[in-house]
Every structure is written in C-alpha cells, then in structure tokens.
C-alpha cells in the first residue's frame, strides 16, 4: 500500500473530514476490548491522527504510521504529542516498524484494509501478527460498499479476512456491522477485532514466535511442530504424563514426519533453499524412496508390513528419528536460555521382524520424545488455531524455495499437506455396509434407528472439518438427510447416550465380529485417539471415552451442538449454539 495520489492532493480536506468524527462514536464496538492505559498501540494508516491522539490523551504509547507524507504533515500539526511516534511506513512490509523492536497490545487499521491489494493481504496480516504482544488484538474496519477507484480501493469481505486470520492463529473476537458515520448510505462497515487465544501459560506466544519469527534454514522446524501438534490433538492416548512434561513415542513422531513429508518429496516440492537442494533432505535415503509403493494414509497405527517394505520402513523411521534429534529438535530453543525445548532419548534398534506391526510397542522402541507440559497443553487445546498457522508457514517456505520454478505451488502444497482424506478413510466402513447387506443383514442409521435401505452416508461422529479422524469407532452409517443436517455440528451428550446401543451394534457387526485382527485394530486406534483410561478396553469404555472427548471438542472449538429430536410423530433436527 504505497502513497495514494488522492490523499496527497486532498490531505487538508480529508483531515478536516476525519476530525469531524468522534473516536468514541467511530469505534464504539471496540471500547470495551481496549487494553488498559499504558499499553502500546500501532495505528496503521493514521490519516489525520485523530485516533492516535485519542489513545495518547488516554495514557497509551502510540506509533502512528501512514504512507502519505501530506497526511502525516496534517497529523503532526493537528496533534503534537510526546506519546506519539509518527512514521512514514506502509503495508504489506512495514519496513520501519519492526526495527523499533516493539510489540503492540492493539493494532488499529481504521478504513485501511480496502486500500491493500488482495494479493498483498496475506503478507500484511502475517506482518501484523508478528508485531502483536501476548493477548494483543488487531482491530480492522471493513468498507463493504462499492470500491472508490479514485482512492485505490479494492473489495473486502469478512469471509476473506476470517480465512486469512486463521492462517496466523488469529480468531475473530468480535465482528459488528455499523452505518457510515459520514452518512453515506451506500457505504456500510463491518468492524472486526482479531485476537490470539490465551492459554494463560505463555506457551502460545512462544509457539507463535517459533512459527512466525524463528530463523529457519528448511521446513524441518515447522514440520516437527506440526507433528507434535497432530499427536497432541489426535494421538494423545499414547502419551505418558510426567510432572513437568509429556512423553510420546519417538517412533510415532518419526511416523507422522514420514507421513507428512512423503507426498511433498514425491511431488518434488523443495523443503530447503536452492543452495542446499544438491544434497536434499537428510532423511530422503534409499530406504525412504523404497517406500514409494505405500500411500501416506497407510502409515498409521495398526498397519502391517512384511518383506522388503517392512525392512525399509523400519530403517527409514530410524534414520528420521536421528535427523529429528540432530536437526529441528536441537535448534528449536527457548528464547531466554537458549536450551532446546524438546528432549529426545533414542534407543538402539532391534532387527526387523518378519511381520512389522505399527503398534504401541513398536513406536516406543525408537525412544522417547519429551514435550514441556505447557506446550503440550497449548497444542492439545488450541490446535484448531495453531495447525493452520503451521501449514500456512510451511506453504510460505515452500513457495520461497520454489522461486516460481513450479506452477501453482501454493495450491499443490496445501493439498499435499492435508492430513487425511475423508473419502478414502470412510472406504472400509462402506465396505462393511456392503458386506452386511450382501449377507442379508440390516444396517441402521445410528442417530434415528431407521433402516438404511438405499442411499446412505458414512458420518464422522465428531465432525471431520473440526477434528479429522477416520478411525473405525468414529465412522457411523447415517441417513443422508440426517447427515446433511448434522453437518459440522457436535453431537450432544444426550444424543450420544441415546445412540450408544446402536453404535455398539454397528461396531460389532461391521468390525468386532470379523475376527481377532479387526478387533485388535479397532481398539488400537481407539487407544491412540481417545482418552481410554483402562488397559483392556471394551465398547463401553470407548463410548465413555467418546463422551469425554466430546466435552473437550466442545470447550476447545466452540462447535454448535446437534441432536435429533422426536416431534409430532416425525424426526427433526435441532441445532443450538453452545
């Protein structure tokens, strides 16, 4: 957003127009969200300095920036203050502001966002996110009317801003509509406040620093953080809790690493700068390349491998565990003391068995990966915000390393970094339905109890969009209309209670009555992803663990509740916001 000629030419008139409005009226929806006096405020696109002056008069320290020298001259003349630092600077780079080494409790963009070209908005918001202090907020007003081309405006939307915010771990704290304060009926506004979730432990600011600001020579650091985030969110059942830390199997860390990197490497996406591409990532050995016949989604707990594939998988995971210990885990450090954040103990590898089963014993055989408790808790509860930031940063690094040598690299990288494929993951549940129908056995909708005679859906009990898990216990046959109505809502505790008997019957017919191996696999998956508190769980234990996990998802993600309610002799759905 460079200086706009219109503002240079009409600075005096525009300044008078801005000064005719009162801060309290313009920013009424923001007043109760302001940091306490004494906080640091960054006013981006300060214009006449009206807002900067209000903050200064109310005890805040202010940095006010604008790309227009003429507007800055007006602001200086109208609002001299020793609490305001005036700078000529602009998005998306804000070259001068980072050199102040300040973090801001509030960043204000009042009537600015529409001036930033859409192609520059991701970079702009990333820059702003890196300047936030812990618990800081960004206030952005969106001009929703037709763009004024003379003022170099572009269309904006709350949907676009929300999607961008998610990439950097920001959430919408508030969004309110307001009429134009200058009386222009054709110019409606939406006032948005973005913030970082607060874990109360200081782990989220640390993670934000590691993701967005820590120096990176490759994608390794981002990959390791995402691996731990994935484990905390979807495989916490394998973790062992200590007083100050949580220990997870080093083999599981290596397995998730392999699963994430495999499609990227096989598609030729660079994971380090061009100057280092001659050697390539250290873990892409002959053993790694020998695993090409295995799909990434097959690298999961419960899978079995024999022969050469088993041998190469075992060796590749061992090599990856060493790379993780010697590279990203070594250089992801506490900002204060400089010591490594994660602690790794590797174990000497035994020979590969004739049949390799990815189970708990196998994963622990590689060693221990120790995560500080506060980081584990942040990743467990806030992964819905953290993981999109990690993916966005990983894609940004790949784009930079590609240097336009590959077309559509951003889209490809996003697709390959998707953790799971819901269509593929539901395939074995559909196969179970087909098998039961072929045997003449009825299949019922778990939510309504109605027999499924024709088309049906495989529903993820806990919505895939919020928590991608394709484990057998999470897949339920459902009537198509009911599944559509349930959508991405979270089943209530009461609905889960009512459906429990039908769910267990489905599990038994589809999986548990098919022999020892499907049963073992079913409970192995459940033990990895659910908070099962017994050593030899049964179906009742899985249902109980699902109820506990449902509480966690509801608290952490604020999902809308869903249940099926009987009314007037028919079934209807009811959704209510938590």
Notes on the protein architecture:
By secondary structure, the chain is an alpha/beta fold. It has helices at 5-9, 11-19, 23-26, 50-57, 69-78, 118-130, 158-167, 203-213, 220-234, 250-266, 286-289, 307-326, 328-331, 360-364, 373-402, 409-416, 422-425, 427-438, 480-486, 493-510, 516-529, 539-557; strands at 40-44, 61-66, 84-88, 104-109, 132-143, 171-178, 189-195, 240-241, 245-249, 304-306, 343-346, 355-357, 367-372, 457-460, 475-478, 490-491, 561-567, 570-576. It has a seven-stranded mixed beta sheet, with helices on both faces. Helix 4 (50-57) links the parallel strand 1 and strand 2. Helix 9 (220-234) packs across helix 10 (250-266), helix 10 (250-266) packs across helix 12 and helix 20 (493-510) crosses helix 22 (539-557). The protein is globular and about 80 Å long. It starts with a helix and ends with a strand.
Blueprint (SSEs and pairs):
Layout: H1 5-9, H2 11-19, H3 23-26, E1 40-44, H4 50-57, E2 61-66, H5 69-78, E3 84-88, E4 104-109, H6 118-130, E5 132-143, H7 158-167, E6 171-178, E7 189-195, H8 203-213, H9 220-234, E8 240-241, E9 245-249, H10 250-266, H11 286-289, E10 304-306, H12 307-326, H13 328-331, E11 343-346, E12 355-357, H14 360-364, E13 367-372, H15 373-402, H16 409-416, H17 422-425, H18 427-438, E14 457-460, E15 475-478, H19 480-486, E16 490-491, H20 493-510, H21 516-529, H22 539-557, E17 561-567, E18 570-576
Parallel strand pairs: 1-2, 1-4, 2-3, 4-5, 16-17
Antiparallel strand pairs: 5-7, 6-7, 8-9, 9-13, 10-12, 11-13, 14-15, 17-18
Helix pairs in contact: 8-15, 9-10, 9-15, 10-12, 15-16, 20-22
């Amino acid at each position: 957003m460079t200086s706009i000629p219109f503002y240079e030419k009409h600075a005096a008139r525009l300044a008078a127009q801005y000064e005719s409005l009162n801060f309290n009226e313009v920013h009424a929806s923001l007043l109760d969200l302001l940091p306490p006096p004494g906080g640091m405020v960054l006013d981006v696109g300060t214009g006449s300095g009206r807002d900067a002056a209000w903050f200064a008069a109310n005890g805040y320290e202010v940095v006010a920036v604008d790309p227009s020298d003429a507007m800055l001259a007006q602001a200086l003349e109208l609002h001299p203050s020793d609490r305001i630092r005036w700078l000529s600077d602009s998005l998306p780079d804000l070259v001068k502001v980072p050199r102040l080494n300040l973090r801001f409790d509030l960043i204000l963009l009042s009537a600015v966002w529409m001036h930033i070209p859409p192609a520059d908005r991701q970079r702009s918001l990333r820059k702003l996110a890196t300047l936030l202090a812990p618990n800081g907020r960004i206030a952005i007003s969106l001009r929703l009317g037709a763009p004024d081309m003379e003022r170099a405006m572009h269309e904006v939307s709350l949907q676009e801003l929300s999607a961008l915010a998610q990439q950097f771990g920001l959430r919408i704290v508030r969004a309110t509509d307001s009429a134009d304060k200058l009386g222009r009926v054709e110019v409606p506004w939406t006032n948005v406040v973005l913030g970082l979730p607060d874990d109360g432990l200081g782990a989220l600011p640390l993670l934000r620093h590691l993701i967005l600001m820590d120096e990176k020579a490759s994608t390794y650091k981002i990959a390791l953080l995402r691996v731990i985030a994935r484990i905390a969110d979807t495989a916490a059942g394998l973790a062992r809790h200590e007083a100050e830390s949580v220990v997870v199997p080093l083999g599981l860390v290596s397995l998730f690493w392999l699963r994430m990197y495999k499609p990227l490497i096989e598609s030729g996406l660079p994971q380090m700068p061009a100057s280092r591409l001659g050697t390539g990532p250290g873990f892409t050995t002959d053993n790694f390349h020998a695993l090409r016949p295995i799909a990434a989604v097959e690298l999961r707990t419960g899978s079995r491998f024999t022969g050469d594939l088993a041998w190469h998988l075992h060796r590749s995971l061992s090599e990856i565990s060493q790379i993780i210990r010697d590279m990203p885990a070594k250089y992801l450090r506490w900002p204060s003391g400089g010591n490594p954040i994660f602690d790794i103990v590797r174990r000497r590898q035994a020979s590969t068995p004739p049949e390799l089963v990815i189970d708990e014993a196998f994963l622990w055989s590689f060693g221990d990966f120790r995560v500080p408790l506060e980081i584990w808790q942040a990743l467990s509860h806030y992964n819905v915000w953290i993981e999109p930031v990690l993916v966005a940063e990983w894609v940004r690094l790949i784009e930079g390393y590609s240097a336009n040598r590959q077309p559509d690299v951003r889209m490809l990288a996003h697709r390959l970094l998707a953790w799971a494929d819901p269509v593929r993951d539901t395939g074995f549940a559909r196969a179970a339905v087909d098998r039961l129908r072929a045997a003449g056995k009825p299949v019922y909708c778990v939510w309504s109890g109605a027999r499924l005679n024709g088309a049906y859906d495989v529903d993820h009990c806990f919505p895939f969009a919020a928590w991608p898990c394709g484990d057998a216990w999470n897949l339920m046959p459902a009537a198509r209309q009911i599944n559509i109505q349930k959508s991405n809502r979270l089943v209530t505790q009461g609905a889960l209670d009512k459906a429990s008997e039908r769910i267990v019957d489905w599990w038994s017919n589809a999986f548990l009555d098919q022999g020892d191996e499907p049963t073992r696999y079913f409970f192995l998956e459940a033990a990895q992803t659910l908070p099962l508190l017994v050593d030899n769980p049964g179906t009742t234990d899985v249902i109980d663990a699902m109820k506990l996990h449902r509480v966690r998802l509801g608290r952490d993600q604020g999902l809308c509740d869903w249940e099926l309610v009987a009314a007037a002799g028919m079934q209807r759905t009811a959704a209510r916001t938590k």
